[in-house]
């Protein structure tokens, strides 16, 4: 499990980031001072639950599982690929497409 700085402390509304409490989901938000008993805090972290840590009442850090971090990395990589493909298509639409034969010739050289 890793400790990460929160870019944005708006955590309410992300169902996958919250833990069930009764019939609804509640985020696990704790003051950073709770890390004195870090073993207990880490027990609340699993592949779908993060623990958010606050400093002076403001979101400061999130603790998440390695599995969740890996999934977020895969999503980020896929998003970057889609973005690159959109830019490439827009450029090809603007500047023109090349034929398969022209592409084969470029790749052979």
Give the terminus-to-terminus CA distance: 47 Å
In the residues, how many domains can be counted? 2
* Percent in strands: 15-25%
* Major β-sheet annotation: 4 strands, mixed
Rounded radius of gyration (Å): 22 Å
Based on Cα principal axes, name the global outline.
elongated
Low-pLDDT windows of residues: 1-18
What structural class do you assign from the helix and strand content?
alpha+beta
**How many DSSP H or I helices?**
3
Helix content: 40-55%
Order of SSEs: EEEEHEEHH
Mean pLDDT across all amino acids: 81
Q: Strands across the major sheet, in which order?
A: 1-6-5-4
Counted beta strands: 6
Description:
The structure is a single chain. The chain is of the alpha+beta class. The chain has 2 domains: about 1-65; about 65-95. Helices cover about 40% and strands about 25% of the residues. The chain has 3 helices and 6 strands. It has helices at about 40-45, 65-95, 100-109; strands at about 1-5, 20, 25, 30, 50-55, 60-65. Strands 1-6-5-4 form a 4-stranded mixed β-sheet. Strands 2-3 form a two-stranded antiparallel ribbon. The longest helix has 30 residues, at about 65-95. It starts with a strand and ends with a helix.
Features:
two-stranded antiparallel ribbon; four-stranded mixed sheet; 41% helix; 109 residues; 2 domains; alpha+beta
């Amino acid at each position: 499990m890793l400790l990460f700085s929160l870019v944005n402390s708006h955590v309410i509304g992300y169902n996958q980031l919250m833990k069930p409490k009764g019939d609804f989901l509640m985020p696990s938000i704790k003051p950073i001072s709770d890390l004195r008993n870090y073993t207990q805090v880490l027990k609340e972290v699993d592949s779908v639950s993060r623990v958010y840590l606050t400093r002076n009442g403001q979101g400061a850090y999130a603790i998440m599982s390695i599995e969740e971090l890996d999934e977020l990395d895969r999503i980020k990589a896929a998003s970057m690929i889609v973005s690159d493909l959109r830019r490439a298509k827009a450029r090809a639409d603007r500047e023109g497409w090349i034929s398969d034969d022209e592409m084969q010739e470029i790749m052979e050289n």
